[in-house]
Amino acid sequence: MADKVNIFWFRRDLRLDDNVGFYKALHGKFPVLPIFIFDTEILNELPKGDARVSFIFTTLQNMRDKLQTHGSSLAMYHGNPMAIFKKIISAYNVQNVITNHDYEPYATKRDTSIKQFLKENEIGFYSYKDQVIFEKDEVVKADGTPYIVYTPYMKTWKEKFKKDYDEKIYYTNEFLTNLYQHSRLPNLSLGDINFKKSKIEIPEYNVTPTTIQEYEKLRNYPAEDATSHLGPHLRFGTVSIRKMMKKATSEKNEIFWQELIWREFFMQILWHFPETVENAFKKKYDRIEWRNNETEFKKWKDGKTGYPLVDAGMRQLNTTGYMHNRVRMLVASFLCKHLLIDWRWGEAYFAEKLLDYEMASNVGNWQWAAGSGVDAALYFRIFNPTTQIEKFDKDHKYIKKYVPEFKEGSYLDEIVAHKEARERCLQVYKAALS
């Protein structure tokens, strides 16, 4: 039988340094064989030119290159994870599988099955917290129940951070000698997994002291490139949340810090209430009689609603895979309340397009826009898509970048008048909630 090895399974933690599970694996008794599985259960739902898959692939190749300088590599597989693990344990003398927690419903179900399968084969399965500072039920009310309103959660989170948090960084460079020594482990091309390189590239993140200090002042203006672009990098783990929290707290910018806490708020909501992926958190909101007009949905998707700020946001999304957060709130509210289209339709479209798609935040924010979620906007608060321009893009810089044909007084006809849409929305919501 081959030499004994431990497997480290990379998932949404695509970096070699300050990776808790990888660090723990490298400190184990056996050499570490790193792997990544292109999971067909996930990939089969994605368009073949998906920019996120291109990004993952390029990141993995860079990781392989680094590992090969240490006489090792990263084994890449394509298929159903259970089938892949059956293949791996027949090829290697596996003692343990080490990974990091993933909190999404599919991932927790998958990991439970894999753990049971490995146990039946007398192989250990160990998973660690890596992508958040506090997880699951680490920040809860005094009675042990989860917070469902952000502000008290955030205050308790900060208290716990200041009191209990160990700011350890899990440096791994000096332990890379503990890798399985084989530099020609299985590799794949994009073609092997039935994908092609995307024309859209995920931008580098920008977390300079200036970005953090000016974040509060500039973050609401979509024409300004003033956000950090951290989203995709946190999503795929190409950056460490511990290092980012250290930056945020050292610069003492409460708003930037609190945006990172929002992410953890939604993650613990998803963990406590996984049914909210499909169902309204506030059950009575599932009684809303959505219009779900497919022609209007297509106009919304294409950025042809006749409301220039809404259209600019959707065209930005379609061409770059990104949308400014202020505009995300507007286009989501517009779909749910002006067009009375089910928030799940919008959530699914964002899931297909957003480079920084994160299930917990996406579901949480869409339910916020619809009024059906935790800490939600009250249903009678309906954004006026015209006055939003005056507040956040009065010089039309953002609009003209993505809607170059826009001219005041001569643009597409509005898909619905704001006043009429508002009154219709209030009637439909009242009927469902009364």
From TrEMBL:
GO terms for molecular function: deoxyribodipyrimidine photo-lyase activity. The keyword Lyase applies. Its EC number is 4.1.99.3. Belongs to the DNA photolyase family. PROSITE patterns: DNA_PHOTOLYASES_1_1, DNA_PHOTOLYASES_1_2, PHR_CRY_ALPHA_BETA. Transmembrane segments: none annotated. Its cofactor is (6R)-5,10-methylene-5,6,7,8-tetrahydrofolate; FAD. PANTHER family: CRYPTOCHROME (PTHR11455), CRYPTOCHROME CIRCADIAN CLOCK 5 ISOFORM X1 (PTHR11455:SF9). This is Deoxyribodipyrimidine photo-lyase. InterPro entries: Crypto/Photolyase_FAD-like_sf, Crypto/Photolyase_N_sf, Cryptochr/Photolyase_FAD-bd, Cryptochrome/DNA_photolyase_1, DNA_photolyase_1_CS_C, DNA_photolyase_N, Rossmann-like_a/b/a_fold. Keywords: Chromophore, FAD, Flavoprotein, Lyase.
